[in-house]
Amino acid sequence: MLKKTFLWRLFPSTWVSLLLVMLLFPLAIQFPGWWSWENGPLENGQVVILVSGVILTRFIVRHNAHDRRMRNFWLWTIPLWLLVIARELSWGRVFFEPIVIGGSGPVFPALRDVWYGDYVYPVNTVIILTTLVQLWRNCQWSKLRQLQFPAVDVVLLIAAALASQLVFEKTLIPAFSAYSQMLEEGAEFIVYWCMVSILMVVKSQSSRI
Predict the structure, then answer these.
(1) For FRET with 67, which of 4, 59, 104, 146 sits at 20 to 30 Å CA-CA?
(2) In contact, 98 and 106? CB cutoff 8 Å
(3) Domain span including residue 121
């Protein structure tokens, strides 16, 4: 079953994933720290990658136009991408003037201090619950089981996510403590790229299902 579900081939996008992993530590050491600041180049790059995920998903939706349920299934994955984009934009707080700019970058107003702050988490909850219900309603397991996923990207995605949240965020490697923020944001960048890489492989199969 695993052999049918996962492909151990190295797709062009998977080579990019491997390259990003190999460059993570060298670039974190060489690049200036402000690259990892809130609303900085790395976080903005993450948003660009996530937006490309939305665009790819729209192509998959189009490929499934002949199948209403599968079309709706992929269409309902888009709100999940948008939520991650909103999270990377700090729920819109990055569009406000910084309160202060310190050694770790700009500090934006707290969520409770912006006019819509009290509505963010309730609205997110409604979106997530509605999305999950619609995904379940439109899911066709028989067709989804025909999809194959790039195993290397899946492994790298999990490893980068764990490294970002459990290692770099908590500065568990003292030797790299000065670069922990760069490593954390860089690992998140890899996570998002791997998500898009997986989607590229899925897109190449979607028109045949």
Answers:
(1) 4
(2) yes
(3) 34-206
Tokens of 151: 């195993």
Amino acid at 106: P
Write down the pLDDT at residue 16: 97
The DSSP symbol for 107 reads: E
Residue 83 counted as domain residue: yes
Q: Which of 201, 95, 107, 193 is nearest to 151 (CA)?
A: 201
Instruction: Check the CA dihedral 59-67-14-179 and report its sign.
Output: positive
Establish if 167 belongs to a structural domain: yes
Residue bearing the bigger pLDDT, 45 or 147: 45
CB-based contacts of 132, cutoff 8 Å, min separation 6: none
Query: Considering the entire predicted model, what is its pTM?
Result: 0.91
Q: What angle do CA 192, 196, 200 make, to 5 degrees?
A: 165
Which pLDDT score, from 0 to 100, does residue 156 have? 97
Which of 62, 60, 79, 196 lies closest to 133 in space, CA to CA? 79
Do the domain assignments include residue 5? no
What does each C-alpha distance from 10 to 15, 42, 160, 185, 204 come to in angstroms? 6, 26, 18, 25, 14
pLDDT at 207 over 60: no
Domain count, the chain: 1
